[in-house]
Amino acid sequence: MMRLPKFEYRTPRTIAEAVKIIGDTGPEAQFVAGGTDLYPNMKRRQQTPRTVVSVMRLSELNRVTGAGGQGLVIGASVTLTDICENEIIKRDYPVIAGAARTISTPILRNMGTIGGNLLLDTRCNYYDQNYEWRKGINFCLKKDGDVCWVAPGSSKCWAVQSSDLVPVMVAIGAKFRLASTLGERMIDAAGFYNDDGIDYLKKRPDELLVDILLPPTNGWRASYQKLRRRGAFDFPVLGVAACIHYRTPTRRSSDRISEVTDAKIVLGAIAPSPIQVTEAAQELIGQPFDDDHIQAAAEACYNKARPLDNTDFVMNWRKQMTRQYTLRALRELLA
Questions:
Q1: What is the pLDDT of residues 116-142, one digit of tens each?
Q2: Is 249 contained in some domain?
Q3: Residues 6+ apart with CB under 8 A from 68
Q4: Is residue 147 one of the residues assigned to a domain?
Q5: Are 176 and 189 in contact (CB under 8 A)?
Q6: pLDDT, tens digit (0-9, with 9 covering 90-100), for 152-188
Q7: How many domains does the chain have?
Q8: Does the reported pTM lie above 0.85?
Q9: What CATH number corresponds to the domain at position 248?
Q10: Residue 156 resides in a domain
Q11: Domain of 261?
Q12: Is residue 234 part of a domain?
């Protein structure tokens, strides 16, 4: 049986108190919300903080305010179940509720939070094992070793970004608010993730993710498609998020098909960071939103995808599925 190592558990009541604890304790401390990612990692000795600072009781992190017309603010400690069931999110941002509903199982969604999913540790078949298993292969580059077993000749860790909400946030242009003893800052979701399995976030250890700002919904629609072995519980081995801004023809216009004014297609779970496929967007922008251009965008995503052998399924088949799941995501919006 894997057991948690000993640690001190702190429960601050305010954001200021939480960031002060982290600032005073230093790198030996770590924030936790639902703990569905951190605690298993601690049991496997992948992360071993001596002080764990819970942010679940911070009221500011447990709010959902606003609506689609002016934009929505979601506190980082709002549970995934609440994301799925919130009436405003379901009405104005159904892609967020839908993506959250694909995460893990109902019991774990009761504990897991939106912030935890956005900060999810990168994953790999050679990393997500217990300590004895990893010791048997002489560890890996991500933790305690000096070789990436996915690409032994590489100096880079190729553990993958396996969040379902990350590609959606990048696609729709969400922003994150971070707080520390030095103050607050805002960062775009698209610029928050590094293409490195070890240093995978542009977030300092002393910073707390406070909330997520979703843009107003005027003029865009988004969808998300997820590939995994089972219909529940599993992490994605491919995620495709699509966001389309379009101009609807007027009644006087002879053109019956909407024209795409902007587009973003983002691939998840095939690299250390989400991949925004600009070539796919270029196939759509300024064109009628029809099946011919959707096919071209899907082909661009297929060409861009470079999955490695570090998660479930054969990597070449996962590459083939990039085309199919992009088609699904875009055709859902076309419908």
A1: 999 999 999 999 999 999 999 999 999
A2: yes
A3: 88, 91, 92, 93, 216, 217, 218
A4: no
A5: yes
A6: 999 999 999 999 999 999 999 999 999 999 999 999 9
A7: 1
A8: yes
A9: 3.30.390.50
A10: no
A11: 220-335
A12: yes
